[in-house]
C-alpha cells in the first residue's frame, strides 16, 4: 500500500493531535519564536540549546521553491543516522538518502512545509526486522533567515513501538512497501498556544 501523501490529505488540525512530548515542546518553541513573522527566524535555533533532542533532529537547507524544492542535510542526529543506515549525511540531498521507491511520497510533507509555512506532522506505520509495528512520528518546522521565506527545515522524529523495544538499525531502509500513512496534518500557527 502506498502512503499517497497528497497535500489534500493534510488536514488543518489543532496541535493536540501531536503525541510525542518532545514534538509538543518543539511546537511551543516554534510558536514562541514566531513573533510577527510568517515563520520563525533560524537564529532562534542557534540561540536555543536543543542538545537534549539532537539525536532525533535533522536540520535541512531548502533550495528552490515549494513544488521543486531540494533539501540539503546540514545535520542529522544519531538516531536518524541509525534508521537510515548511515552515520553522516551532511551535505547530501535528502533525495539521495531516502529509499528511491518511497522518495516521491516522502518528500511531499517537506515541500508542503515550505509552501504553507506551517508545521507538518505525520505518523506512519513501519515494521522492524522482527515484524514488530513501529509508529514513525515526524514533525517538520519551517524557519527562514528573513522570517518570511522558508529556507530551513527542522525535522524531528520519534519512533514508538507498542511492544516496547524494536530493531532501529536501517529501519527506514528495509521497508518492503511504502509505510502506511496513519495521520497527516498541517498545524496552523494561530492554533498554537
Summarize the structure.
This protein has helices spanning 21-32, 43-47, 78-83, 94-97, 103-116, and strands at 11-13, 57-63, 70-76, 120-127, 133-143, 152-160, 180-187. With 193 residues, it is of the alpha+beta class.
Fold blueprint:
Blueprint: E1 11-13, H1 21-32, H2 43-47, E2 57-63, E3 70-76, H3 78-83, H4 94-97, H5 103-116, E4 120-127, E5 133-143, E6 152-160, E7 180-187
Parallel strand pairs: 1-7
Antiparallel strand pairs: 2-3, 2-6, 4-5, 4-7, 5-6
Would you write up a description of this structure?
This protein is α+β, with helices and mostly antiparallel strands. 21% of the residues lie in helices and 27% in strands. The model is unreliable at 1-7 (pLDDT under 50). It has a single domain, classed as PAS domain (Beta-Lactamase), CATH 3.30.450.20.
| Uncertain regions spanning at least 5 consecutive residues | 1-7
Number of domains: 1
Question: Number of DSSP strands?
Answer: 7
CATH architecture: 2-Layer Sandwich
- Shape field: globular
Quaternary structure state of the chains depicted: single chain
Total of helices: 5
Name of the CATH homologous superfamily: PAS domain
Radius of gyration: 16 Å
- Named CATH topology: Beta-Lactamase
Q: According to CATH, what is the class? A: Alpha Beta
Helix content, binned percent: 10-25%
